[in-house]
Amino acid sequence: MAKAFRYSAILLCVVIVLLFSGSEQLQSSQGETLLRIQRLLNYPSALSSWNSSIDFCNSEPNASVTVVCYEQIITQLHIIGNKGTPLLPRNFSIDSFVTTLVGLPNLKVLTLVSLGLWGPLPGKLARLSSLEILNVSSNFLYDAVPSELSSLTGLQSLVLEDNMFAGEVPNWIGSLPILSVLSLRKNMLNGSLPDALSDLEDLRVLALSHNYFKGEVPDLSSLANLQVLDLEDNAFGPQFPQLGNKLVSLVLSKNKFRDGLPAEVTSYYQLQRLDLSNNKFVGPFPQSLLSLPSLTYLNVADNKFTGMLFENQSCSAQLEFVDLSSNLMTGHLPNCLLQDSRKKALYAGNCLATGDQNQHPISICRNEALAVGILPERKTRKASKAIIAFGVIGGVVGGIALVGLIYLAVRKVKSRNAFKKPTTRLIAENASTGYPSKLLSDARYISQTMKLGALGLPAYRTFSLEEVEEATNNFDTSAFMGEGSQGQMYRGQLKDGSFVAIRCLKMKRSHSTQNFMQHIELISKLRHRHLVSALGHCFECYLDDSSVSRIFLVFEYVPNGTLRSWISGGHARQKLHWTNRIAAAIGVAKGIQFLHTGIVPGVYSNNLKITDVLLDQNLVAKISSYNLPLLAENKGMVGHGTSSGASKDHSLGTRINQDEKVDVYDFGLILLEILVGRSLTSRNEVDVLKDQLQASITSDDAARRSLVDPAVQRVCSEQSLKTLMEICARCLLKNPADRPSIEDILWNLQFAAQVQDPGRGDSQSSEGSPVTPDQRPPLHITIH
Ligand SMILES: *[C@@H]1O[C@H](CO)[C@@H](O)[C@H](O)[C@H]1NC(C)=O
Ligand SMILES: *[C@@H]1O[C@H](CO)[C@@H](O)[C@H](O)[C@H]1NC(C)=O
Ligand SMILES: *[C@@H]1O[C@H](CO)[C@@H](O)[C@H](O)[C@H]1NC(C)=O
Ligand SMILES: *[C@@H]1O[C@H](CO)[C@@H](O)[C@H](O)[C@H]1NC(C)=O
Ligand SMILES: *[C@@H]1O[C@H](CO)[C@@H](O)[C@H](O)[C@H]1NC(C)=O
Ligand SMILES: *[C@@H]1O[C@H](CO)[C@@H](O)[C@H](O)[C@H]1NC(C)=O
């Protein structure tokens, strides 16, 4: 009976929402513009349901069409046709099309993908002066990129992929002040790149693959935020580009790079993907690349890398794919590649002594190594023995030399960080002049980079109330897990057998489902390896006025307890070892980084606690409770950004900046507990510890160890402990501005993992300890 009643309530709720959501009508001229666009595009099937009686602002978005309005003015338009859509007919005029488009003058986001658009892109597109994201991928646009676009000073993403644009990359590109994504992949652009690219300080993604570019890549080392560089399939070279060391993905394959790799490459601690295949690289292959802590994909196939590989070389725990094929390497494939079935390794076409993939006799590699001239040509024949010897031991000597250089790189980065503003800053300040909630609706734009951190979770979906009830056995008390500021939590099991955690949020009256859709969409995009991610949601409505009574958010279930229970929980459970503690801290920091910069605007003030960090079966840390935008909504803060409790006279920019540092402080508390290994409950206790920590940093190793959890006291290396203590102390500084950025934190944590020596009896150190004892640098890091 009760169930039947519930259903009719929901049904009624849906009907009422449908009836009333159309009450506010879109300004009619904009509706006409959309209908004209439909006609100019020759009535594509994606727009089949558009007609004069449709309420565009309240129509349900789907994968091919989305219209977003802010106060009944269209701010976003996405039309995505079928892949492989042919050219529009002869009577199509790109000029009339763009003339029509500029009838939507408030557009901030414009996506017109796979629609068969053809012709030269008219410069008058720049009349859309509020544009922040422009994506016209997979059409047939040709000729030069119009120079008028240089006036779009708010542009953050310019995506012209998969068209037929020709000519050179214009110099004015450097004058777009906040450009963060530039993708010109798959066009017919040529010439060499302008030096002006190095002015794009905010650039995160630069994708230029599959064009006809040539020549040296300009110096990009000033682009401190560059995370993705894709130059595949051009004719760049011969010198390896100069780059900052924040790179996450670096693809240089199918070019004309010829010189050796610079030592800095082994300091790219955040690098996940490195593809150097199909070039002409010479010189010793720095095998320490294999142990870069974040690396998952390494491809150096089809080059002329020389050098000897050693069985005892360690590999990054993350590494999944390695291709060393068709080079001139000798020695033995590292055991870590052979013995770990999760790592796929290809190495045919070298001169390795390792058996089962086709190898050349060692003389071939030696002769060819001589032929490609590892050393300058003026060396006489006498030197040839030395050359071979270099080829053979190059890996080892090179490795040691590289570590020294890493040290230099560390210092350089640290001093640079001291002056560099955090990445989010400009976006934040931009937001202060705009409309927070408008920006909020743009939050769906998660950069490609950040997606690299996403997991193989099922697609986000809507759950039915019935499903939620069944999963929790009708919210049985045995399924109840707890209650916090973010509602009650229930454990559940879905029909397919998978476990989920269901958060139940009671809503104040008066909001319809429509009010929540933007937030739900944001939540659906908050997916990351280090966040407990949402799988879907379900609305329950009041019978009388159709407003939402409860929202159920269905999350992935993380089975292995809280981080606290592994550190200081006093359970019978084994305490977490040192390297796993660092790995957990790195995980939390990556989760925070994603919340801050993975989406625009970021999610701040997450009130992070060690009890809200969960570990999964592989001890991967996941933040389970972050600042869900729905909660702000519930407190009556609709449309005021994501931050809570901020006073009106603060600009949004300053607020976000402070909120960012609030999370850094909370992270410091988590790190402190990880270090000392006991629950920290009072403010006073924290203050006392903080002072002790600060004092011990300048004292000796013994003093520092005396502060640390006895369970790990003897296994942590001196440098790794000191690095962690220093970063922890900085996170807890009183003045938010003095606290480090999340990038700085991450860098230091990864460094601490790197210098932790696996030989100290830390038996769980299967990951994150790639530096071998004799390579450990004798270094010091100073705090700023
Ligand atoms: C273009 O021509 C087609 C017929 O080939 C016609 O159906 C369509 O309406 C024309 N479109 C425009 C914008 O004139
Ligand atoms: C507009 O489309 C809807 C369905 O998408 C249909 O019910 C309605 O009759 C159409 N109106 C007109 C005027 O064609
Ligand atoms: C998406 O929505 C548009 C109108 O908003 C409609 O014409 C189209 O058929 C829908 N596409 C899918 C795949 O549902
Ligand atoms: C451009 O839009 C298409 C369709 O939404 C999307 O698949 C693609 O990832 C976008 N490109 C970029 C670089 O954001
Ligand atoms: C680049 O392409 C344009 C047009 O396709 C051509 O006119 C020009 O000569 C090319 N420039 C170079 C440097 O090849
Ligand atoms: C690896 O083995 C080689 C010789 O087999 C040896 O010279 C080198 O010191 C070893 N390296 C480490 C880190 O154990």
UniProtKB/TrEMBL annotation:
<dbReference type="InterPro" id="IPR051824">
    <property type="entry name" value="LRR_Rcpt-Like_S/T_Kinase"/>
</dbReference>
<keyword id="KW-0677">Repeat</keyword>
<dbReference type="InterPro" id="IPR001611">
    <property type="entry name" value="Leu-rich_rpt"/>
</dbReference>
<feature type="domain" description="Protein kinase">
    <location>
        <begin position="475"/>
        <end position="751"/>
    </location>
</feature>
<dbReference type="GO" id="GO:0016020">
    <property type="term" value="C:membrane"/>
</dbReference>
<keyword id="KW-0732">Signal</keyword>
<keyword id="KW-0812">Transmembrane</keyword>
<feature type="transmembrane region" description="Helical">
    <location>
        <begin position="386"/>
        <end position="410"/>
    </location>
</feature>
<dbReference type="InterPro" id="IPR011009">
    <property type="entry name" value="Kinase-like_dom_sf"/>
</dbReference>
<dbReference type="Pfam" id="PF07714">
    <property type="entry name" value="PK_Tyr_Ser-Thr"/>
</dbReference>
<dbReference type="InterPro" id="IPR001245">
    <property type="entry name" value="Ser-Thr/Tyr_kinase_cat_dom"/>
</dbReference>
<protein>
    <recommendedName>
        <fullName>Protein kinase domain-containing protein</fullName>
    </recommendedName>
</protein>
<dbReference type="InterPro" id="IPR000719">
    <property type="entry name" value="Prot_kinase_dom"/>
</dbReference>
<keyword id="KW-0433">Leucine-rich repeat</keyword>
<keyword id="KW-0675">Receptor</keyword>
<feature type="signal peptide">
    <location>
        <begin position="1"/>
        <end position="25"/>
    </location>
</feature>
<keyword id="KW-0472">Membrane</keyword>
<keyword id="KW-1133">Transmembrane helix</keyword>
<feature type="region of interest" description="Disordered">
    <location>
        <begin position="756"/>
        <end position="784"/>
    </location>
</feature>
<dbReference type="GO" id="GO:0005524">
    <property type="term" value="F:ATP binding"/>
</dbReference>
<keyword id="KW-0325">Glycoprotein</keyword>
<dbReference type="GO" id="GO:0004672">
    <property type="term" value="F:protein kinase activity"/>
</dbReference>
<dbReference type="InterPro" id="IPR032675">
    <property type="entry name" value="LRR_dom_sf"/>
</dbReference>
<dbReference type="Pfam" id="PF13855">
    <property type="entry name" value="LRR_8"/>
</dbReference>
